[in-house]
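BUG: 3D viewer hangs when loading the predicted structure for this chain

Environment: internal workstation, default settings.
Expected: structure renders.
Actual: progress bar stalls at 90%.

Input used:
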Amino acid sequence: MPHPQLDRNRLVVKSLARRPNKLAIEKDHVAPGQLPNPLAPAARVALTGVVSRIRAARKDGRPVIMAFGAHTIKNGLSPVLIRLMERGWVTHLATNGAGIIHDWEFAYQGQSSEDVKENVARGEFGIWQETGFFINLALVVGAYEGLGYGESVGRLIEREGLEIPASDDLRSKIADFKNGEDQIAATADLLGVIRKFDLKPGWLAVPHPFKAYSAQAAACRLGIPFTGHPMIGHDIIYNHPMNQGAAIGRAAVRDFLSFAESVSRIQDGVYLSIGSAVMSPMIFEKAFSMAQNLALQQGAPIDRHFIAVVDLAESTWDWQKSGEPPKDNPAYYLRYCKTFSRMGGTMSYLCADNRDFLLTLTQALEE
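Structure tokens produced before the viewer hung:
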């Protein structure tokens, strides 16, 4: 017999406009030309190598993939990410579910980042109508249209709305078995949402007055993959009754396979992992293993890739010269270093704030 579940339909969901926020993107964004704080000497030396690797990779048409945690968006660095995409230095961006949400909230209302402690005490944390409604709806529509997680949200921002199909059209597609089981299931999910929330067919306008600050929208506009890599229950959109696990799964798997396709071309390319302790190393190791499997079948193993890992935590262990530390050394438990040190190629670790690193990197590339 199934275990009981909490009923999200009973939640009091409040308007996002009522939520105080800690950050305002117009005030708190970081412009690409803004002066960074100086990097530590070791990080400056390492950054020189990163710049050289990126220049060589792009000259040869090889990918530069950047994966980052949500604080990169919260720190107002979207304009810097947009500059890197526009100038062709970065070919693929990847983030977690929270990064997707903060980018959307900045684009939608110009603000983000609530007070978690205060709002949990009031039973309000993460239970906001617009964030939960529009992001979840974008994912359900995107899964139906065959889009990935980040692409679905990025297109919502860039187009400032969603096309809602007519229920009769969806019923016809469900009845047509030639559409395939996965498409039929995605269509049924969308039809269920339309019924539950009484959505009218046609264009649903969702203005995003601050979309110029959205890295997802810029990626959509430029045709660059911006992939989202969520974990079930980790993000506030799971609090909303609109949330559909199947749609999230479909969109997220598409994004993971898009990420893996970029990784499969990483020979002589660059992977940047910035402020992501878990998501980035976890998705990379699985994607790289699949890529290596295919490469070995062709007799051409991937072994000339470069990985730059950036985080605030200090590490005295020399990963390049000494390999993996023993288990009694605290450095062994720095997941991002341990994982990437096992991925072959060359790995460089930089202890730096993501704001200072990205600004310094961008300005060095443009010199």
